[in-house]
Task: inverse folding
């Protein structure tokens, strides 16, 4: 996942949900990774797929499971951690664009429409 974002000094998490053939589509499985956005400036941030950790009801799953990019159904971005990690108050994450990128064949921004 690659995005162009402008941060506000807070920490954010990118979340991916996938189809789950073991249960139904209401699974609590979520792949999560920190999204580091610089405060006050637009930057292109890449979060490689191998950085996403499988979680279940907010807890990291210890078993090694590979994220199947072909089964992704949704992507979300949220504030990280709650009161234990960050103080309460307003937040403002600017998002110009988000894209999926196969880094094995990506040739640069000229390939993006």
Result:
């Amino acid at each position: 996942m690659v995005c162009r974002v402008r941060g506000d000094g807070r920490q954010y998490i990118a979340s991916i949900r996938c189809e789950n053939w073991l249960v139904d589509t209401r699974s609590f499985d979520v792949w999560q990774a920190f999204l580091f956005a610089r405060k006050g400036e637009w930057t292109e941030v890449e979060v490689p797929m191998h950085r996403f950790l499988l979680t279940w009801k907010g807890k990291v799953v210890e078993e090694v499971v590979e994220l199947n990019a072909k089964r992704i159904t949704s992507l979300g971005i949220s504030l990280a951690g709650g009161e234990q990690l960050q103080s309460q108050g307003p937040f403002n994450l600017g998002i110009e664009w988000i894209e999926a990128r196969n880094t094995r064949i990506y040739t640069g921004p000229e390939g993006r429409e």
User: Anything to note?
Assistant: DSSP finds no helices and eight strands in the chain.
